[in-house]
Amino acid sequence: QVQLVESGGGLVQPGGSLRLSCAASGNIISINVMGWYRQEPGKQREMVASIRTNADPTYADSVKGRFTISRDYAKNTVILQMNSLKPEDTAVYYCNADLKLREYKSIKRDNYWGQGTQVTVSS
């Protein structure tokens, strides 16, 4: 069993900053990719930023230069630092992890989502 627990969402004014954190726990052997997605009401979930183990991060064009993703490999944690926030960044943000875990006597690869955290950018 694996859990992704997110924190750090909230209400911020345009131009402000927020920091999202996501910690993965459970019978994890290794994590291949961790990332952040977001979803507005009535719209599809979209990738915001992701980072593969020991590789350069990937960002959506809409957040390049404003958001920074990083990982703490020892703590199985991914951080999204969001600066210069805009009203169009308002959404529910979800953490995602592609990982290998131990299940009984076997090892399997699976994909997990966090519960989501609301980010609202408004004056």
Task: Using brief descriptors, characterize the structure shown.
seven-stranded mixed beta sheet, 63% strand, four-stranded antiparallel beta sheet, mainly beta, 123 residues, single chain
Backbone structural class = mainly beta
Record field, number of beta strands: 11
Structure annotation, total helices: 0
Major sheet size, sense and barrel closure: 7 strands, mixed
DSSP helix fraction: under 10%
Q: Strand percentage, roughly?
A: over 45%
What's the topology here?
Layout: E1 2-7, E2 10-12, E3 18-26, E4 28-39, E5 46-52, E6 58-59, E7 67-72, E8 77-82, E9 91-103, E10 106-113, E11 117-121
Parallel strand pairs: 2-11
Antiparallel strand pairs: 1-3, 3-8, 4-5, 4-9, 5-6, 7-8, 9-10, 9-11
Structure, explained:
By secondary structure, the protein is mostly beta strands. It has strands spanning 2-7, 10-12, 18-26, 28-39, 46-52, 58-59, 67-72, 77-82, 91-103, 106-113, 117-121. The strands form 2 sheets. Strands 2, 4, 5, 6, 9, 10 and 11 form a 7-stranded mixed β-sheet that branches. It has a 4-stranded antiparallel β-sheet with strand order 1-3-8-7, with no helix packed on it. Strand 5 and strand 6 (58-59) form a beta hairpin. The chain is elongated. 29% of the residues are buried.
Short précis:
By secondary structure, this protein is mainly β.
